[in-house]
Design a protein that fits this description.
CATH topology of the largest domain: Rossmann fold
Order of helices and strands: EEEHEEHEHHHEHEHEEHHEE
Number of helices: 9
Distance between the termini: 41 Å
Strand content: 25-35%
CATH class of the largest domain: Alpha Beta
Oligomer: single chain
Strand order of the largest sheet: 6-7-8-3-9-10
Number of domains: 2
Length: 257
């Protein structure tokens, strides 16, 4: 099972574009990394059909019609980078909205059970009746992820989900995403800035730079001193820890910064 992107192009202005992107996302966690302005968020917005781009999207060997809104509504969940938490609905109601496509005037017992399952998974039961406008940024992030997962998507796309989370919650969230991705056999795509976390949790790494694909592969293959110098303009050493993950040691800023 895979999600394939072929010859994707997108132009926002004369100053920025995505150029001829072709990628394969297998049913593992893929981290999309790169410097600010590289096109990471734009790429997943194009794949999620939020931004209109050219090129083909193929899922399980079938070309997806961009006008087929049912595919994007049922099979794909997208969590944006920024979210407002000024709504007066409760946490329970916010998670329930993830089932928007199947909601009617009456919430069924099965839908209530689905929300309660998400509340349990994300340890949010104590906040179920609290209004989302009263939540911290980290709590809101958990609610939105629960909302994205309640419909049991086949493809999960997260744009910098670690925003507003302390170190403990970052690890806890990535552990949970890793567990659920394997259990549900999901294609999970996460835009990330922390390269060490990307190397630890992702099976597949996509590196973007200036709107183009720089490289794609396993963490050990693509996270190298040369890559970090080319993309981030830093000098570094790469160590493989006892669990087999590459760990970056910062040395200096590259001379030609």
């Amino acid at each position: 099972m895979s999600l394939d992107v072929a010859n994707l192009n997108y132009s926002y202005s004369s100053k920025f574009s995505l150029t001829d992107i072709s990628l394969r996302f297998p049913n593992v966690i893929t981290a999309v990394i790169g410097p600010n302005g590289a096109g990471k968020s734009t790429l997943i917005k194009c794949i999620a059909n939020i931004l209109k781009s050219s090129g083909d999207i193929v899922y399980m060997d079938q070309k997806i019609n961009r006008k087929d809104k049912s595919f994007f509504a049922k099979s794909l969940s997208y969590l944006p980078q920024y979210s407002q938490n000024d709504a007066t609905i409760t946490v329970f109601e916010a998670i329930l909205l993830g089932l928007m496509n199947s909601l009617t005037l009456h919430v069924s017992p099965a839908q209530r059970e689905a929300v309660n399952t998400m509340l349990d998974i994300f340890d949010l039961q104590s906040l179920a009746q609290q209004r989302v406008c009263e939540l911290s940024g980290g709590q809101m992030q958990m609610v939105l992820l629960a909302q994205a997962l309640i419909k049991q998507p086949e493809i999960l796309m997260l744009d910098e989900p670690l925003n507003n989370l302390d170190i403990h919650r970052q690890f806890a969230l990535l552990n949970l995403i890793s567990k659920l991705s394997k259990q549900k056999d999901m294609i999970t795509i996460i835009v990330m800035h922390d390269i060490n976390l990307a190397a630890r949790y992702a099976d597949n790494i996509v590196i973007m730079n200036h709107g183009k694909l720089y490289s794609q592969g396993k963490p050990q293959e693509v996270i190298t001193p040369k890559t970090l110098k080319d993309i981030y303009k830093i000098e570094s050493n790469i160590h493989i820890n006892r669990e087999g993950y590459p760990v970056i040691e910062f040395v200096d800023i590259a001379a030609n910064f």
